[in-house]
Design goal:
The protein has two domains: 57 residues; 112 residues. A hairpin with a 2-residue loop joins strand 1 and strand 2. It has 217 residues and is mostly helical. The longest helix has 64 residues. The termini are far apart. The radius of gyration is 40 Å and the shape is flat. Helix 2 crosses helix 3, helix 3 runs antiparallel to helix 4 and helix 5 runs antiparallel to helix 6. The chain contains six helices and two strands; from the N terminus they run H-H-H-H-H-E-E-H.
Length: 217
Amino acid sequence: MTIPFAPRSSAMGFMTQLTWMPALSHHHTFRAYSANRFAIQNIPALFSIYVNLLYRRRRRQTHIQNVTMQWWVSRLVLVAGRIVLLILLLALDEANSLYAFCPSLGAAILFAVLYCLTTLFHIFQAVKFRTAFCWVIIMSGTWQTVAYIFRSLSILSPTSQGFYDPQFILILVAPLWTNAFVFMVLGRLVHNCLPDQKLVGIKGRWFGYIFVTMDIM
């Protein structure tokens, strides 16, 4: 039996084809049914494969980006390490030098910059949090900065007593300010954090006085 003509683009024609489907031969009907069943059963699997491919592609791209970033970071760290090493090895040797060793100009400049940055940061913190007692650590950082500036000038003029003496004294005395600040912070922690405001039987406000007394002795 032949199937009446019905355009595929027409909904009525599609319904007509479905109506006359039993009139098809058994072979054609089985093939159409098998194809439809295969498509319906494998649509979720095909969709899953598609999503998995997209995920793997994005993960591969992310992995490539991470590897690229790690490579650049490692190269920057390596270059920075080499620069610092070269700076530290730039030591000046002078026959009539006041130093008993061969000082490094690069190291002196590096520490002058580092102490300057930390001092500026302490000043910012002291102003922001209104901690007046931080002038002690600011004084320590300032002395250290000035000390290493004089150290740099002294290395450039290793026979000058005027540059050598200030850096020697400041480097020797500046850590006392840091130690005093540590005891001041300890006293405030004991006063504000412990219930009885005591540590080993000593009031928190006495730690600063004890440090000054012991330092003078």
